[in-house]
Design brief:
The chain is 66% helix and 0% strand. It contains 28 helices and no strands. Helix 6 crosses helix 7 and helix 15 runs parallel beside helix 18. The longest helix is centred in the C-terminal third of the chain and has 23 residues, at 357-379. The chain is elongated and about 95 Å long. Forms a complex with importin subunit beta-1. Pfam families: Arm, Arm_3.
Length: 468
């Protein structure tokens, strides 16, 4: 059959069996009629056993229109439930080869198809990596790229970076491109570039340092003030991944002003998932050095955290609880005085009721550090025999919560609870266990003091008030 007739036959076949919209760039999630109509058409194509034929058409270098039509069909099938069949049809090496086509439309369609394959199972991405897709794909990023093509290429690259990358994949060339595209004015390009940073920092060893070396940090911090939530979410998730690095890497975030941005995010009406990630970043920073805890304090973040602990949904409360517990665990005496003056004791005591053993234990460590600071302060005052922090915990119902933890199924929590009870409330605990004292074990008659009723421990004059 002459080439022109071959092309015409292929196009007629497509017209008959592929009545679809232009190629899609995602996996259909809806159960709508369009989804089933597309899957029905795909099944017809698969049953006709023509996938290898379409893969073969991709190699017809003298017929760019035929190459593009074949890639278009494969792109749609790769967006269905049958992506693996496309990946295993012999199309992948030809699609990778098409990234070097002199025809811009063919290159764009090949990128689109590869992006849909990459968006499926890890096994599909592995097939792409096996055929060396990364370098040819990176070569598509040129200064003269049109925005629609750049969007597709960045989206395809982000799909490739999802999950753990093979050891042979070089991350630095990817980050060099991403570090430029996070300055894009196009929101879709910007979002996918930030998702790529997020994926890399969670799926590749040493990628956090590679990302910092590529210079992504200043712009990511700037983007925390972006108006679009579709951009803000990947930005803050990427920064959360970076904040899980070592103290030196976290310090880079601090020096680029991330804490002042987070203070604004926590103090305003942002979506729940944004606030949750913001609390996570603060929590990671608060696990660092005392200087880094001080940076959290200086950024006026403690008060918003306490408000979240008192008023927000449970999952956000939990992240805020981690942040406050970590800060209390590593704080100096002066920093503890500040935390207490902001009203951290009652919400920390409430954390003791959470069903998360790791969080409860960290909270106990924070309370231990606070009580130790209160004991040291007591010794510094000649006539004082009362630890003010222990007294406040008693009056606010925190002692009852500590005693309840004696029944917890965790040896380390039980051990720390007993240490605190015996060190700071031995007399109260002994009295509550004495059966001769009326009401000593009758918890139903006790009234828990709320934060509005209980006086806060006196704040030291040496600690400056937090800026509102």
């Amino acid at each position: 059959m002459p080439p022109s007739q071959s092309l015409k036959a292929c196009q007629n076949w497509l017209t008959k069996y592929v009545q679809m919209t232009p190629p899609v760039s995602w996996k259909p999630q809806s159960s709508s009629g369009n989804f089933f109509q597309m899957n029905s058409t795909v099944i017809k194509i698969i049953r006709a056993d023509v996938l290898p034929r379409f893969a073969e058409f991709l190699s017809r270098t003298g017929l760019p229109q035929l190459q593009m039509e074949a890639a278009w069909v494969l792109t749609n099938i790769a967006a269905s439930d049958y992506t693996l069949l496309v990946a295993e049809s012999g199309a992948v090496p030809r699609l990778v080869e098409l990234l070097g086509s002199p025809n811009a439309n063919v290159r764009h369609q090949a990128i689109w198809c590869l992006g849909n394959i990459a968006a499926d199972l890890p096994s599909c991405r592995d097939i792409l990596f096996d055929h060396g897709v990364v370098t040819p794909l990176l070569s598509q990023f040129r200064e003269d790229m049109k925005i629609p093509v750049l969007r597709t290429a960045m989206w395809a690259l982000s799909n490739l970076c999802f999950g753990k990358l093979p050891a042979e994949v070089q991350v630095k060339p990817i980050l060099e491109i991403v570090s430029q595209l996070i300055h894009s004015a196009d929101e879709k390009i910007l979002a996918d570039a930030c998702w790529t940073v997020y994926y890399l920092c969670g799926g590749v060893d040493d990628a956090i340092q590679d990302a910092l070396d590529a210079g992504v940090c200043p712009q990511l911090v700037n983007l925390l003030m972006h108006a679009s939530s579709s951009v803000l979410l990947p930005v803050i998730m990427a920064l959360a991944r970076i904040s899980a690095g070592d103290d030196a890497q976290v310090q880079v975030l601090i020096e680029n002003g991330i804490l002042n941005c987070l203070a604004q995010l926590l103090g305003r009406n942002y979506p729940k998932n944004i606030k949750k990630q913001a609390c996570l970043i603060v929590s990671n920073i608060a696990t660092g050095s005392k200087d880094q805890i001080q940076a959290v304090i200086d950024a006026s973040i403690i008060s918003p955290l306490i408000v979240i602990l008192k008023t927000s949904e449970t999952d956000i409360k939990k992240e805020a609880a981690w942040a406050l517990s970590n800060a209390a665990s590593g704080a100096s005496s002066e920093q503890i005085q500040y935390l207490v003056s902001r009203g951290c004791l009652e919400p920390l005591c409430n954390v003791l009721t959470y069903q998360d053993p790791d969080l409860v234990y960290t909270c106990l460590e924070g309370l231990e550090n606070i009580l130790q600071a209160g004991e040291a302060g007591k010794k510094g005052e000649e006539e004082s025999e009362t630890n003010p922090y222990a007294q406040f915990i008693l009056e606010s119902g925190g002692l009852d919560k500590l005693e309840d933890l004696q029944d917890v199924n965790s040896e380390r929590i039980y051990g720390l609870v007993m240490k605190l009870l015996q060190s700071y409330w031995e007399e109260e605990v002994s009295e509550s266990d004495d059966p001769n004292i009326p009401g000593s074990n009758d918890s139903a008659d006790s009234v828990e003091t709320t934060s509005e009723d209980a006086a806060q421990p006196p704040a030291p004059a040496s600690v400056a008030d937090e800026a509102e």
